[in-house]
Design brief:
alpha/beta; Rossmann fold; 2 domains; six-stranded parallel β-sheet; 13 helices
């Protein structure tokens, strides 16, 4: 098939790394592994972050109209694609292109990780949310990566067609290395930006301050606009306890993981967190908050430990417990790697997506 792929929040080729960009690339890899030709339909970034930004919304709608004209002309000359595949539309980043084009050309429309929450019907987002809901109702299938998203879609659109695809990664770089953990070595991977990411860094620093008597060492992988502010959160800790690695590619992250024992990241507001899957594929048990979509990828007591959100003492106790219990840490490490390889791998995703497209879109892969 020729598949038109569109990610309104962040195009797959965007220069800033993030979980959204990685998931978009993984979905493309999944479709290509199944034998399809994937074309990036548009790089229009349909993001409106301020509910009062009427000028930005109006400019975006004009840009969308221009893109529709461009794509209509291209499809009339070259033929329409067999499928429009939209990743991660929500109230701040609706798909302003696909539903209109698919209606005009009779092309099947599919969403992945669409989300809807009625409480976001405020300001300029109200009209954008209406576009999201209409797209969800139009879709041949809405593929949900978490149970929370599935419940939200069915509440908003009870007649919508829904299917589940577990979050997944390409495990190759992470399973290629043997498990060689250094005792008391912690690691985290995250962008340094405002919001949930900064809150998670704050929670991690608050927990580590409570563990002065353990010889832990933390490796931090990541960079971003709040690098100085994030570094300041850890100022109360001895500087030789933390190594700041900056931004790393997948091979670099895998190399760092191979020498660590436990992955620590509270995960405030995480939809699910692909870094959790990468860490577990490398054989690292995870310590995180039991919040948002984190339980979708971390099994408490089996592949890691989940603690109450916003409780530094509980989080510190979990770190201390796992670092000082080699038997439990080793057991969780093996379970973590096995679960990601068996359930959250690219290979598993290809098979699941095959079934979804056949059942809902009537397309053979």
């Amino acid at each position: 098939m020729r598949i038109a792929f569109y990610a309104p929040l962040k195009p797959p080729g965007h220069p800033v790394p993030s979980g959204d960009r990685l998931m978009a690339r993984m979905l493309i890899a999944c479709l290509e592994r199944a034998g399809h030709t994937v074309e990036i339909a548009s790089e229009l970034r349909a993001f409106i972050g301020d509910l009062q930004d009427e000028a930005g919304r109006d400019a975006l709608l004009r840009d969308a109209d221009t893109e529709i004209v461009r794509l209509t002309d291209a499809w009339q000359r070259q033929g329409a694609p067999d499928l429009w595949f939209c990743y991660h539309l929500y109230y701040k980043a609706p798909d302003l292109l696909g539903p209109i084009l698919c209606n005009a050309f009779g092309t099947p429309y599919v969403t992945v990780e669409a989300s809807y929450s009625a409480r976001r019907n405020r300001g300029v987002w109200t009209a954008l949310q209406a576009r999201v809901l209409a797209a969800i109702e139009q879709a041949a299938v809405n593929i949900c990566l978490t149970a929370r998203d599935r419940e939200g879609l069915l509440e908003a659109a009870p007649a919508a067609h829904i299917a589940r695809l577990r979050p997944f990664i390409d495990t190759a770089d992470f399973v290629a290395r043997p498990l060689q953990p250094q005792p008391f070595r912690l690691v985290t991977v995250a962008m340094m930006r405002a919001g949930d990411k900064f809150d998670s860094y704050r929670g991690l620093a608050a927990a580590l301050v409570l563990l002065p008597d353990l010889p832990w060492h933390l490796s931090v992988v990541g960079d971003g606009p709040l690098r100085e502010e994030v570094t300041a959160l850890f100022a109360a800790l001895p500087s030789d306890r933390i190594t700041w690695h900056g931004e790393q590619d997948r091979a670099g992250i895998a190399a760092i993981f191979s020498h660590c024992a436990v992955y620590v990241w509270p995960g405030c507001g995480e939809a699910f967190g692909l870094a959790y899957l990468e860490a577990q594929a490398a054989g690292l048990p995870v310590i995180a908050y039991e919040t948002a979509g984190v339980p979708e990828v971390v099994v408490d007591g089996e592949t890691g430990i989940l603690t109450a959100p916003g409780d530094p003492a509980a989080y510190a106790a979990a770190i201390a417990g796992l670092l000082t219990d080699e038997e439990s840490r080793g057991r969780m490490a093996k379970h973590a790697r096995a679960r990601v390889v068996g359930t959250h791998s690219l290979e598993a995703a290809v098979a699941t997506l095959d079934t979804i497209l056949r059942d809902f879109v009537g397309i053979q892969i």
